[in-house]
Amino acid sequence: MKKLLLLLICYLLSSSFIYAQRPYWQQQVNFVIDVTLNDVEHTLDGFEKIEYINNSPDTLSFIWIHIWPNAFKNDKTAFSDQQVENGKTDFYFSEKDQRGYINRLDFRIEGEVVKTEDHPQHIDIIKLILPKPLPPGETVFINTPFHVKLPLNFSRGGHFGQAYQITQWYPKPALYDAKGWHPMPYLDQGEFFNDFGNYDVRITLPKNYVVAATGELQNEDEKKWIKSRNDISSLEYTTVKEDKSKKFLEKPKSKKILVSSKETKTLNYKQTNVVDFAWFADKEFLVATDTVLLNGRTIDAYLFYLPGYEKTSQQGVQYIKDVIRFRSVYLGDYPFNVVSVVEAKMGIQGGMEYPTITSIFPTHSEKALEDLIEHEVGHNWFQGILASNERDNPWMDEGFNSYYDVRYIKEKYGENKKEELLEGKQLLQRAMDTWINWKMDQPITTPSEEFSVINYGLIAYFKTAFWLQEIEQYIGKDKFDQAMLSYYDTWKFKHPSPDDFRKILEEKSGKDLSQYFDAATRKENRRVFEKKRNMKIVPFFSLGDYKKHTYIGLFPAIGYNNYDQFMIGLGIHNYNLPSNKFQFILAPLYATNSKQLNGIGRVSYTWVPARKVYKVEAGIGGSRFSTLKGIDSTHQKVFGGFNKVVPFVRIIFNNKNPRDKQTWWLDARTYLINESEFEYTYSAADSTFYPHESDYHGRYLNQLTLGVDNFRRLYPFDGQLQLQQAKDFYRASFTGNYFFNYAKGGGMNFRLFAAKFGYIGTKTTEKEFQTGIYQPKLTAVRGDEDYTYSNYFFGRNEHEGFGSQQIMMRDGDLKLRTDLFQGLQGRSDNWIASMNLNTSLPNKLLPFKLPIKIFLDVGTYAEAWDKESTTSRFLYVGGLQLSIFKNIINVYAPLVYSKEFKDQLKTVPDENTFFKKISFSIDLQKINTRKFLNQAQLY
């Protein structure tokens, strides 16, 4: 047994040694491509010749091929799935003619048709089965025609009208290295890993297009023409009438366009040692040019811009030159003879890099222009020359690049930008510390597709940049710069790994960097706050040094209701970012009418264990306000009201996948409520009943809620199972919401509600009367039925005027006020069930968008199924709904309803008017920070 164990150890050690000593190699993939643009059909027709040189020690029997235009073929691709996960639905709901694909592929080797196999999962990857194995050191030549239908620019490439951004457009072998093949579907969040090669590309298109492309243009006459395109007067516009697709009722318009030339031209671009080829074509492009002198070499710099952006064009060229010089000093010389920046119609506020060329969105801001150019042109080093695996290690591209973004501004502007840089760093540090404090960060080394949307930018870009700054400070700036120069010189035009980068850093610095590289592989566990912090009073809130100070914010607090009327006070809180474990907010309010001290308050403490339970919050809340007002027999104002204290515990369960937006939670709370109502005495003097204040009487309600929500952009839903219990009853209910998105925007919300009510002990007439407000009902819930005082009401006990028309969304939610008809409320001390639908109107129904919806509520209740029932088993209400402020305020106008409602309303003509039947709700409970973060498109 000992001998066997010894042999096994020797084998493993020898295998590891052999693998570690395996020499570095990389494949060479060269392309000759002829392509023609059809700007009517928005298509490309091309023919491609691939020279695939097998520099590996392995014999290859197949080659994986990326055919990434198929990522835009339908809504079942990895790209489409990721877009929806990231909160973007424009491609998912796009029309068929807005999508793209690649077809007419006919791969041949030496004239022989080559068999292909579909990837088992992704339609934008295929396997090319080689007719005979490709040994080490041998070359295979692969030819194929291809046809591409260009999509709208949903991600990096495509078109907007006749403005073209041609990226990821041709069949391209996947990269093969010591780890094997890297076939990968096209993704928006997650970039590329391509072989180096030489490109010879010929582009045919209408003559009056300006083309910007990877590499050097070979047509001298075209070069001269491009350099003359520096004045808008050179553009010959034609006025045309708008097509028939104009919106209903909208007046016909005319617009100026550049008509495509009937003549065509063929442009030839060549470039060696690059990982990709991209090109851009637009008839409106104007061009600013200059040259960069770099160690005896002349580099041509181009800025392709659109009309209207002339003021920043020459400044933009200067920024290109500044970046080339700066990066060449600190990393190594820019190796190509041309560098281009294209202000393209991409539909996003950002940019995207390709070898020798980058696209950015047009901007009039010189600061934004410089930031974009510096970052995107900088990608020529990371990722154009140091071509690491961006899909697995986005930090080696975006993070490195972001580090040099900061260095560039700091060293170019020095003290002039010191405050601006410091403020920017502090804001980013605050954002990262907030995420760390909530234990929602991810390791720096996370693969791109595993990052949450926020973390992709926050961690891969900015946290990596700060991490590199810490390493620079630890080993010294000079040694760091020497290491980066060596890293570039050693690995340029290769595919460095994280270990390659670490090895050079440690060799040049002479220091062990384990602590930094180990930290990059795990989530943060450092303290966000220092142990001792000073308390500091500030107005509203502070963005100051949260590590050293606990900020207490003061703010003016105001309120209003029909009884206390205008209320004013001074609020105090410690809600800041990052958040404190102990949090409080107190807002005492002096009421100008009731002359009493009202207000709200909340105190809580939060634990974030980051295991099976993500967060536990325990605390206590409370409030006090008036709910009644009157004049007593002495003509003095009297008021009734409530105060409540609510201890609570809320548990949010952990979600192991940071990209998953579904959350389960459990909430337990007890409502301890004291109420003062009016008692009335009769005055014989004027035969009138006068109110007078009564003593407060108390009640309690225990509540346990199990909830789940998924605030994804597409088909979001939530559900709550709730159990309530008080002295004489229990109440169990379920509320669920599911939103169906429409392709053209808007959608339909489906709500389902069911409740079961029961008595504790024997049912009595007294119990039935006392539990009336707790019993579930179908029709609109009024303010005096808000038994937990959880919703905001102007007037809880109003029966006339504006205040009486406010309702709350609870129970059956049939949006009709039936307080005059107790028998028609659908109230039950057994069970009720309802279904509520509301749908937005079609976008093109009117020439302008209105926040109008159509609603329909249908419900039933136990008593309606009794044999003696005098009402229908199902009641319904339908009408129009106006929703504003993100559905926080809703106004309902019932137009159709059950016969029972109609008949009873006829008996009260004063109430049976359109405006009297209108109701509204103020649903502050819909304000949800997690919903905003999950549905926001933050990158």
What would you say this structure looks like, in words?
The structure is a single chain. This protein is of the alpha+beta class. It has four domains: 27-195, Immunoglobulin-like (Sandwich), CATH 2.60.40; 388-528, Neutral Protease Domain 2 (Neutral Protease, domain 2, Orthogonal Bundle); 531-708, no CATH class; 711-939, no CATH class. It contains 16 helices and 45 strands. The strands form nine sheets. The chain has a 17-stranded mixed β-sheet. Strands 4-9-2-1-15-20-17 form a seven-stranded mixed β-sheet. The protein has a five-stranded mixed β-sheet with strand order 22-23-24-26-25. Helix 8 packs across helix 9. The protein is elongated, with a radius of gyration of 34 Å.
Let me know the number of strands: 45
Q: Total helix count?
A: 16
Q: How much is the radius of gyration in Å?
A: 34 Å
- Beta-strand percent range: 35-45%
Shape: elongated
Sheet of most strands: 17 strands, mixed
Question: Share of helix among residues?
Answer: 10-25%
Kindly list the characteristics that best describe this protein:
939 residues; 17-stranded mixed sheet; Immunoglobulin-like; alpha+beta; single chain; disordered N terminus; 4 domains; 20% helix; 16 helices; Neutral Protease, domain 2
Secondary-structure map:
Blueprint: H1 2-20, E1 28-38, E2 43-53, E3 60-66, H2 78-85, E4 101-103, E5 108-109, E6 112-113, E7 116-118, E8 125-134, E9 139-149, E10 158-160, E11 163-166, E12 172-173, E13 175-177, E14 180-182, E15 197-206, E16 210-213, E17 216-217, H3 220-227, E18 238-241, E19 254-257, E20 264-274, E21 279-282, E22 286-294, E23 297-305, H4 313-330, E24 338-343, E25 351-354, E26 357-360, H5 366-378, H6 380-385, H7 398-413, H8 418-437, H9 453-475, H10 477-491, H11 498-509, H12 514-519, E27 534-539, E28 549-559, E29 567-573, E30 582-591, E31 597-607, E32 613-631, E33 637-653, E34 662-676, E35 678-683, E36 688-693, E37 697-710, E38 717-725, E39 729-741, E40 747-759, H13 765-770, E41 831-840, E42 852-861, E43 875-884, E44 889-897, H14 899-905, H15 914-917, E45 919-922, H16 929-935
Parallel strand pairs: 1-15, 23-24, 24-26, 27-28
Antiparallel strand pairs: 1-2, 2-9, 3-8, 3-12, 4-9, 5-6, 7-8, 10-11, 11-21, 13-14, 15-20, 16-21, 17-20, 18-19, 22-23, 25-26, 28-29, 29-30, 30-31, 31-32, 32-33, 33-34, 34-37, 35-36, 37-38, 38-39, 39-40, 40-41, 41-42, 42-43, 43-44, 44-45
Helix pairs in contact: 4-5, 5-7, 7-9, 8-9, 9-10, 10-11
